[in-house]
Amino acid sequence: MKLKRLGQAAAVLSIAALGLTACGQANNPGASSSGAASGSAAEGGSQVEGTLSGSGATSQEAAVTAWQTGLAATAPNVSVQYNPVGSGAGRKAFLAGSASFAGSDAALKPEEQDEAKKVCGPDGALNIPAYIAPVSVAYNLKGVDKVQMDAETIASIFTGKINKWNDPALVKQNEGVSLPDTKITVVHRSDESGTTKNFTDYLTAAAPKAWTYDVVEKWPSEINAESAQGTSGVVKLATTTDGAITYADLAATGNLGHVSVKVGDSYQEPTEEAAAKTVETAKKVEGGSANDMAVKLDRTATTAGTYPIVLVSYHIFCSTYKDQNTVDMVKAFGTYVTSQDGQKAAQEAAGAAPLSTSLSDQAKKSIETITVAK
C-alpha cells in the first residue's frame, strides 16, 4: 500500500530524484560516479560522490522532496534524480538497467524477480518498504462532508452499477446525510499504477461478487469511466468535477472528501495510524529471498482501528551492484529513508505512516546485505 526525514544514514545523496547506478553487472547505465569511495559511506566512513537515477511511484514524490532536503546537508556531493512516472514504468526502467532503483507501490512480481537476476545477479532484487499510506476513496460532492460505504458499494460504484449519489445502498449507510441526486463520475488512473493494484486488491478480496476484474495495475478497459495520468491527474480531475469519486494517496487528495470504509461493524476513516496498524498485521510474501521484505496485506481484517486500503510503497534495490561507490550510496540512501528520521520527514511532508521500529530495524539489516557483484 500508503506506505505522505533527516539523515541517520552516514554519507549519501542530496535526493533530486532517486536513482542509483544500475544493478548488477549489466545494469549500470543509469548512474555515474566521480571518484571511488575509500571506505563505506553507509557505515559513516568516507565521502561518496555521484549521481543516482531512479524512477517510479508518483505517490512518493512529496516524500522524495523531503528526503532530498534532509540528505542534502549530509551528502553534498551526491545527487539523486527521480522521475515520477508511475510504479509500472519505474519497475520497467529498473529491470531494463536504465534506473538504479525503482519506487513502486507494488513489489516485484515473481516473473519480474526472475528478470531482475539478469541485471542484479543471481540473488535478484530486494523490495524494501519505504513509504506507507492509506489510499483514500476520495470524492467531490457539494454540501456533503461525510460519506460511509462498505466494500460492495465501493465496488459497485467503480464498476458503474451504482451511478447516483442518492442510490438506496448509499442512503442506507448514511442515515441523516442529505445525499443529492447527482451523477457519480468515476475517475481512475490511466497509467499502469501500484495505487490501482492496491485498490483493486482490496476490491477483489472484500467484494468479490461486485468486483470481477481481479487485481490489476491497469484499469479494466471494459469499465466506462473518466481517467487521468498519475496521482495529481486524477485528483485534479476529481476536484473540478462535481459528483466525482476516485482513489489516491491520502496526502495528495487536497480538498476532496474521504469515504469512511466499513471495517467489521464500524466505519473507519483513512488515517496514518489506521494504515500503520494494518501493516503491522501483514505477512511476508512467500517465495522471496531471506532479505526481501515484500508483504501481503489482509484486506478483509475486521480489527477496529485498521483501514483496509493501504499502500506499501517500496524501494526496489539490486542485491549487488557493479562498484563499491554505488553500493555505499545505495546503503546510505536506503538506511536513511527507512530510519526514524527519514520516516518522520516523510510523515511531515507527505502524510505517510512511519514504519514501525521492528520494520525499520529489519530494513536496515536487509540493506546492509547489498554488496558488490563478484
TrEMBL record:
<keyword id="KW-0592">Phosphate transport</keyword>
<keyword id="KW-0813">Transport</keyword>
<comment type="similarity">
    <text>Belongs to the PstS family.</text>
</comment>
<keyword id="KW-0732">Signal</keyword>
<feature type="compositionally biased region" description="Low complexity">
    <location>
        <begin position="30"/>
        <end position="46"/>
    </location>
</feature>
<feature type="domain" description="PBP">
    <location>
        <begin position="42"/>
        <end position="340"/>
    </location>
</feature>
<feature type="signal peptide">
    <location>
        <begin position="1"/>
        <end position="26"/>
    </location>
</feature>
<dbReference type="InterPro" id="IPR024370">
    <property type="entry name" value="PBP_domain"/>
</dbReference>
<dbReference type="InterPro" id="IPR005673">
    <property type="entry name" value="ABC_phos-bd_PstS"/>
</dbReference>
<dbReference type="Pfam" id="PF12849">
    <property type="entry name" value="PBP_like_2"/>
</dbReference>
<dbReference type="InterPro" id="IPR050962">
    <property type="entry name" value="Phosphate-bind_PstS"/>
</dbReference>
<dbReference type="GO" id="GO:0043190">
    <property type="term" value="C:ATP-binding cassette (ABC) transporter complex"/>
</dbReference>
<dbReference type="GO" id="GO:0035435">
    <property type="term" value="P:phosphate ion transmembrane transport"/>
</dbReference>
<dbReference type="GO" id="GO:0042301">
    <property type="term" value="F:phosphate ion binding"/>
</dbReference>
<protein>
    <recommendedName>
        <fullName>Phosphate-binding protein</fullName>
    </recommendedName>
</protein>
<feature type="region of interest" description="Disordered">
    <location>
        <begin position="29"/>
        <end position="55"/>
    </location>
</feature>
